[in-house]
C-alpha cells in the first residue's frame, strides 16, 4: 500500500541521496502522535555521545527525547511505515538494514541542534536517517528549520518542520542542523542501522 512512496524514496536516495516529502503519510497520523506525546511525562534531555560516554552538552544540542515503542496505535502505524521502507530498501538496494530506531524530540523555544552528521564515514551503524514532523500550522516565523548541507558544507535546502513532512537522507553524507525553535517543535528522528541491536 505504501509501495509508491517507498519507490519514490528509494529512487531519490539513489539519485540525490535525500528527499523531502510533504503530506507523506496518513493525514491524521501527526495529530495522533502529538496527542500521545502530550500525555507522556518521561522525556529526557538529549545527549551527545563522545568517546562512548554519553554526556549532556547543551552548547551543541538542546532538545528532549523519548524512544518510540509499540505502546499504542499511532506509534505502531509509524513503525509499520518504517518497517515497510526498511524491507523495500533491502530488497531493491541490498542495504542490509538490520533494524530501525527512532525517538520523539521536543524542542522548546530556543532549543536547537548544531550542525552535525548522524553517522561518521565508515562507522557502519546508522545508514539512512528519517525525520518526520508533527507541527500543525508551523510556518517560517516559528523557527526550527532543518538545514541540510552537501558534502562541501554548502546549504542545499531549508525545511520548515510542518506536520506530515518526511525527510529521508543518507546518514553519512549530509551534515544538517536545526535552527533555534521559536515555537514548541515536535519531531520523530529515526535511523536504519546495519549493526546488531
Ligand atoms: C537529529 C536531527 C533533525 C530534526 O535528531 O539527529 O538531526 O529536524 N534532527 O529534528
Ligand atoms: Ni541529525
Name some characteristics of this structure:
197 residues; alpha+beta; Jelly Rolls; seven-stranded antiparallel sheet; binds nickel (II) ion
Largest sheet: 7 strands, antiparallel
**Strand percent estimate:** 25-35%
* Low-confidence runs: none
Quickly give the structural class. Answer: alpha+beta
Kindly state the percentage of residues in helix. 10-25%
**What is the CATH C level class, in words?**
Mainly Beta
Mean pLDDT: 93
Bound molecules: N-oxalylglycine, nickel (II) ion
Order of helices and strands: HEHEEEEHEEEEEEEE
Backbone shape: globular
Measured between the Cα atoms of the first and last residue, the distance is 28 Å
- Gyration radius from CA atoms, angstroms: 16 Å
Amino acid at each position: 500500500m505504501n509501495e509508491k512512496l517507498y519507490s519514490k524514496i528509494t529512487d531519490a536516495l539513489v539519485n540525490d541521496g535525500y528527499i523531502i516529502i510533504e503530506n507523506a503519510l496518513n493525514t491524521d497520523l501527526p495529530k495522533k502522535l502529538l496527542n500521545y506525546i502530550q500525555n507522556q511525562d518521561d522525556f529526557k534531555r538529549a545527549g551527545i555521545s563522545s568517546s562512548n560516554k554519553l554526556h549532556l552538552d547543551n552548547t551543541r544540542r538542546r532538545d528532549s527525547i523519548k524512544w518510540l515503542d509499540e505502546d499504542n496505535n499511532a506509534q505502531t502505524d509509524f513503525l509499520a511505515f518504517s518497517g515497510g521502507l526498511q524491507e523495500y530498501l533491502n530488497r531493491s538496494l541490498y542495504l542490509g538494514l538490520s533494524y530501525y530506531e527512532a525517538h520523539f524530540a521536543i524542542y522548546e523555544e530556543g532549543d536547537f541542534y548544531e550542525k552535525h552528521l548522524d553517522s561518521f564515514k565508515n562507522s557502519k551503524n546508522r545508514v539512512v536517517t528519517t525525520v518526520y514532523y508533527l507541527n500543525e500550522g508551523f510556518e517560517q516565523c516559528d523557527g526550527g528549520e532543518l538545514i541540510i548541507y552537501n558534502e562541501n558544507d554548502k546549504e542545499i535546502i531549508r525545511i520548515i518542520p510542518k506536520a506530515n513532512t518526511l525527510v529521508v537522507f543518507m546518514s553519512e553524507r549530509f551534515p544538517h542542523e536545526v535552527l533555534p525553535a521559536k515555537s514548541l517543535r515536535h519531531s520523530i528522528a529515526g535511523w536504519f542501522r546495519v549493526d546488531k541491536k
